[in-house]
TrEMBL record:
This is MFS transporter. NCBIfam families: efflux_EmrB (TIGR00711). Residues 19-494 form the Major facilitator superfamily (MFS) profile domain. CDD domains: MFS_Azr1_MDR_like. It comes from the Bacteria. Residues 499-525 are annotated as: Disordered. The chain crosses the membrane at residues 16-41, 53-72, 84-110, 116-134, 146-165, 171-192, 204-224, 230-252, 272-297, 309-330, 342-360, 366-385, 406-428, 467-489. The lineage of its organism: Bacteria, Pseudomonadati, Pseudomonadota, Alphaproteobacteria, Hyphomicrobiales. Signal peptide: none annotated. It is found in: Cell membrane. InterPro entries: EmrB-like, MFS, MFS_dom, MFS_trans_sf.
Length: 525
């Protein structure tokens, strides 16, 4: 058995526990950035208007954090994990302050995009630090803990957002990030040792630009199609064609780059390919559920923003319990394949049940459905990162971690935009002439609905609930596809030590492919 090696950037004085604490704080900060806004969306729309662009408050953050994820891995190699994490936090906080200053939906979307530019770095660099200092088998337990942190943020974020909206103003949902951000900066300053020697690498700027442009064009097409413009309009067709051209050029560029943003050889690795695809599909279902469940509870069920967040607790319990349990199972057994199989099956059932919700569905039933959804989401995130880091050479762990995060975030971005288009078009078609003359859906809020005459209000609420059914049916279809893909996963026992190369083996053909795309897979052998 080969001896454990010292990680390239492990802190010398702080304990591993302190490093894990630093990572947990940064992940909590990034996760709250995604979730805290959900229960405040109706209030924000009520004040700023623009229901047609509501999902872009979420999409702007997800999209910007997605497209910068790969580049943060390269920046960490160039300048060290510590300075890159600190810079990401500062960018995140600047975006939060700008969001609080927004006086229009357009400005808010712009500010959320800036906030996401920081949030993307928090996720990727933090996960890479863990891979540097903890053996794969122990990472299962740690990743389960991080899944629990995300689960807490899933409910604490909306709950905190609902409480702030009710007792203060929605601007404070962004300003509340400031003390947590300062705490994260302080913990990182103590926990991580800056790199004394920089390693020179080349950054694949063309690949980064093409990937960012392609993803942005695709999400714009899915968000605006059927809403602002028709699906077969010149604008939407142009965006789709542009996305395909840029993504095609991205693949061509990556095959020739010295150090590609996303080495194509990774896709020859079964674990990376399958977990990325499953993460993409589960990301669609996850962010769609988190975005639209509070809206259903507030508008269709008539609960307050705070109560709508409290009713998300069953989802949090399911997510935390399943995530931590899967982490302990991986650590104890060194196995993981059955975990995503069971969880995605449960996720499919939970989403199908959510698609049956009506205005008179009892709260306990909705709680049970949400518990199943949370339990289905939890293990996927922790298993994907742990299994991928175990299955690829140590020299490309950073790129693989960024890639796994990238696909999950892409799924979330595209999922929210697709679900938003489905919901908006469905709501518009169902409302028809129900709304009063001059009324529309631009400022559709709980207050506006409650002010309608009772017969009209009932029709509007029925239309709202019915418009959400296709959203959850679509999410369930994505989860079912993910369930099928989990059976293609090849299980590799988790290594118990830090090695120069993990137990994953790369055959000669993969080494040749890796060399062609610039992935140094033979380093350390």
């Amino acid at each position: 058995m080969s001896e454990p090696v010292q990680p390239t950037e492990a802190p010398e004085n702080p304990s591993v526990a302190l490093v894990i604490g630093a990572v947990a704080v940064t992940l909590l900060l990034a996760s709250l950035g995604q979730t805290i806004v959900s229960t405040a969306l109706p209030s924000i729309v009520g004040q700023l208007g623009g229901l047609d662009h509501l999902t872009w408050v979420v999409i702007a953050y997800l999209l910007s954090s997605t497209v910068v994820a790969p580049i943060y891995g390269k920046l960490g190699d160039l300048y060290g994990r510590k300075i890159v994490l600190q810079a990401a936090i500062v960018i995140f906080l600047v975006g939060a302050v700008l969001s609080a200053m927004a006086s229009s939906m357009t400005f808010l979307i712009f500010a959320r995009a800036i906030q996401g530019l920081g949030g993307g770095g928090l996720m990727v660099v933090a996960m890479t630090v863990v891979a540097d200092i903890i053996p794969p088998r122990q990472r299962g337990k740690v990743q389960g803990l991080f899944g629990a942190v995300f689960g807490v943020a899933t409910v604490v974020g909306p709950l905190l957002g609902g409480f702030i909206v009710e007792h203060m103003s929605w601007q404070w949902i962004f300003l509340i990030n400031l003390p947590l951000g300062v705490l994260a900066l302080a913990v990182i300053a103590v926990a991580l040792k800056p790199r004394g020697e920089r390693v020179k690498h080349s950054i694949d700027y063309p690949g980064f630009v093409l990937l960012s442009g392609g993803l942005t064009a695709f999400v714009l097409a899915t968000s605006l199609g059927g809403n602002t413009w028709g699906w077969f309009s010149v604008q939407i067709i142009g965006l789709i064609v542009g996305a395909l051209v840029m993504l095609g050029a991205f693949l061509w560029t990556e095959a020739r780059a010295a150090e590609p943003v996303l080495p194509l050889a990774l896709f020859r690795n079964n674990t990376f390919a399958v977990t990325s695809a499953v993460g993409f599909l589960v990301g669609m279902a996850m962010f769609g559920s988190i975005t639209f469940l509070p809206m259903f509870l507030q508008l269709a069920k008539g609960v307050s923003p705070t109560d709508s967040a409290l009713q998300l607790v069953p989802m949090m319990v399911g997510l935390i319990g399943a995530s931590m349990s899967s982490g302990f199972i991986m650590t104890r057994t060194g196995r993981y394949k059955v975990l995503p199989q069971v969880s995605t099956f449960g996720l499919t059932i939970g989403l199908l049940l959510l698609a049956t919700m009506q205005l008179d569905t009892p709260s306990w039933q909705i709680a049970l459905y949400m518990f199943l959804v949370g339990a289905g989401i939890g293990p996927v995130n922790s298993v994907s990162v742990t299994a991928t880091q175990n299955a690829v050479p140590r020299s490309v762990v950073g790129a693989a971690t960024a890639g796994t995060t990238l696909f999950r975030q892409i799924g979330g971005s595209i999922g929210v935009s697709i679900f938003g288009a489905i919901f908006s078009s469905g709501l518009a078609s169902r409302l028809g002439d129900v709304m009063p003359t001059g009324g529309g859906t631009g400022s559709f809020s709980a207050q506006a609905v409650s002010a309608l005459p009772e017969p009209v209000r009932n029709l509007v609420l029925e239309a709202f609930a019915s418009a959400l059914h296709p959203v959850f049916f679509t999410a369930a279809a994505a989860a079912l596809l993910a369930f099928g893909l989990t059976f293609l996963l090849e299980e590799r026992p988790l290594s118990s030590t830090l090695r120069k190369e993990p137990e994953a083996e790369i055959d000669a053909e993969e080494q040749t492919t890796a060399a062609m795309v610039g992935a140094p897979v033979t380093a350390g052998r």
